[in-house]
Amino acid sequence: GEGGKKGKGNKIFTQFEKKISKGKSNKRDDVHGDIVHKTEYNICHIGISFMNQYPQEFMYVHIDGIGVEMKSSRHEFFYETKIKNAQADNQMYSCSYPVLMYLSSSSGPVSPPVTSEKNAIHMSVTQSAQSCPNVDRFRYVSFLMQELNLRVDEEWVNQILTFFNLDEDPNKAEQQYGKEKKNDIVKMWEDVVTAPPKSQDFNYVYIDSFHINPMKINLSFLPALLPNRDSPFRRLVGALGVGVVNVENAPVMLNSLWIETLYLTRKDLMDRISQHYIQQGLTQVYKIVFSFDVLGNPVSLVSNLGTGVKDFFYEPAQGLVQSPMAFGRGVAKGSTSLVKHSVYGLSSTVSKISESMGKGVATLSMDQQYLQEREEASRQQPRHVGEGLIFGMKELGLGVYKGATGVVMDPIKGAKQDGLPGFAKGVGTGLIGVAVKPGVGILDMATRTTQGIKATAVYFDIKTTRKREPRYIGSDGRLRVYDAGAACCQSLLAELEDGKYKNHWYLFNAPLIDRSIVLVTQKMVLLVSFATKPTLEWKVLMPNITKLVRATPTSLIISYQKKSGKLAEHTINTHDSVVGTWLYAQLDKAIRVYHNTLQTHGSERCFL
Q1: What's the pTM?
Q2: In whole numbers, what is the pLDDT of the chain averaged over residues?
Q3: Which of 75, 136, 290, 600 has its CA 20 to 30 A from that of 6?
């Protein structure tokens, strides 16, 4: 809630962000003269924010177009639920997959979100009004869900395991299970001796037709850049004895479950459903295995080529039965699909093979800092072939530079850290790096170029983005009503210069002339330009500010001291005098509060 105390533990906040259409209820006579009662509820959308213990928002679930309809007559009850769209966003800053889960109505390299004509989720139930004691009779039960795209990274998995208290140590859990098992055995024997027999009351269901439609899940997973072996996820996979690899768009197909005339308990029904999907999941394991990046993701290659060939023949055939003009459009659409899917599939496979080869060769360098820098650079994906060539040339140059300078720098670093043994080790890694790092640069260039080609193939496709920016929570840790402006500014700080300022707390901002804004944090003042993309023009640390002057009603001058001891200044030009007056007062207050904090707690002066 607004102005609440500092968050303790995990909390979920549900927000009805628009007006809810009130339920409509009416009664009418059906054709048989029975009174029918009909009720409808329509909700525009619901937002659910998931917070961890810090507090920090790590997931936001957005559900659009919820419709619930209930009808009843003398003979039966009818329930129907429709959801237009549902999406879950990763609200962690600098995450690999900003969108965790979304539903789409068609397959492709970049699956578009569900269109307004289709429902993402549809469930209908028809129940008989004339049920027997302890037996609920249903004439029809149906569930439909559109294609689900699930993309998660290791950091988010750790967050969700912690949120639901699933991060306990397996050894401790096993010991606790053993104690509870012993207690259960003792308690069981006590019940056998002392407890009277109890009659069991089973609640049965009878269903004429039970139908769950086929489901498709496109699964992607990205391991952590620097994995922590003590993290909940690593402990879990360690207990299971499995490895962790990259998976991209593994198509998991789950066949439908259609059963006629069911008579069983509710528990048996749930067991039968779970058993069906466990068996279906086991039959799809090979698709996940062949979607590993280390193998080049052959499943994605075959799927994309198959989709392109199918569209090449299917689209013209569909147009032919309509008109000659529709046939021409079908030929163009089918040919475009064939080219796009072929280029995407082939370039994706080549890039993944070269990337895997580059990772393998890079490990021979035995330079942990070089490996870390290379992994961090690989997380930034090119948006088109031009950017791919730029990234490729940059990484080729980096490989040649690191290899050439490593011969000299590695022995010096080793001698500083471990003396003579470190010097000898540095000589070895330097000589190996001369041969290995330029070769890795060539492989990285090939990877980046093919990644750019792959991105160009789907450059104009509709892509799914976050519904909103991550919730802003200030340094005081208080939960407040969502503020879109503060959330955007905090996200901007997290993205500037590759996340260099993600640990700064946003205070306030003001719009300036020439498409720029001034951002003020608890540590510094920044000016960001939006001429093309967000670019940091200059920054001044709070302890270096010597004077703040209001030169004109619309301009301010910040004087500060450089590392060399010389004085410098920056001018801030606002749109009008009202903004200038407000900004001067807020900035002056922030500087005074910072210096008062220094006098209270003490700190060293920081220079640019």
Answers
A1: 0.77
A2: 81
A3: 600
